[in-house]
Amino acid sequence: xxKAIAQHDHLAIANQQNVNYYKMEKVEVKELLEAGVxxxxxxxxxxxxxxxxxxxxxxxxxxINLYKTAAKIEETAEALHKIAASGxxxxxxATKKQAxxxxxxxxxxxxxPYITERWPGGMLTNFVTIRKAVKKMASIDRMKKDGTxxxxxxxERLQVDRLRAKLEKNLGSISDMTRLPGAxxxxxxxxxxxxxxxxxxxxxxxxxxxxxxxxxRQVDYLIPSNDDASKSIDKVLSLVTSAIAxxxxxxxxxxxxxxxxxxAAKKPAKAKVAGDEEE
Length: 279
Description:
This protein is of the alpha/beta class. It folds into two domains: about 25-120 and about 180-255, 3-Layer(aba) Sandwich (Rossmann fold), CATH 3.40.50; about 125-175, Helix Hairpins, CATH 1.10.287. Helix content is about 50%, strand content about 10%. It has a five-stranded parallel β-sheet, sandwiched between helices. It is globular and about 65 Å long. The protein starts with a helix and ends in a 13-residue tail after the last helix.
């Protein structure tokens, strides 16, 4: 009996320590299957380092083991939830046609920065220069507000407008990113190899959808998956950004709790009524 009580107490303490432990809803393999997440590349294009995540070969195509994919999604979701809850940004990178709009929509919905046009060289390793370009965009906006823009000649106004449009296209989605991101999430690590190299140089954790033709050793958290089909990309990103949204909500509720705690602490102590003093 005493042993059972002790065990119960031990579990209670463990639960208290794990208050911030995040566990996402179980990923359904059936849903991954329906989204075509299991289709890899032609067997002749494979990277042998992906062997542990390959289930079989069918009609010359590698089939990904979706049970391993589901486990990796849960692992990735937990880590991204922590990063979002800590207040750091997660930069999404996907410049391929099938992924661009999905990434812009999903990352934008959780207020995370993203690159869907050409990766600007030095985006991470030369972040100061990139920030200057973003500030240039803000200064053009100020010129338009305060009327300075209207004092320019027609030709100058056209040049400024063109510059603003170019900056918006390439950097508009990262205008709120005032410091280096806490992590990178990449769709297709072969295509985004420059972004991967820059993140590796700066020890920024890399999360990615990794297909059977890529080397998983390039990233810290991989999700073995079809990174070519829009349905597959949509499914994986929906699960990942859902965990980020939960992390942001947790951060917000923690902030509210802290503010309420501060307000309570600031309340003046109740004044003593005459006669309350101890004799």
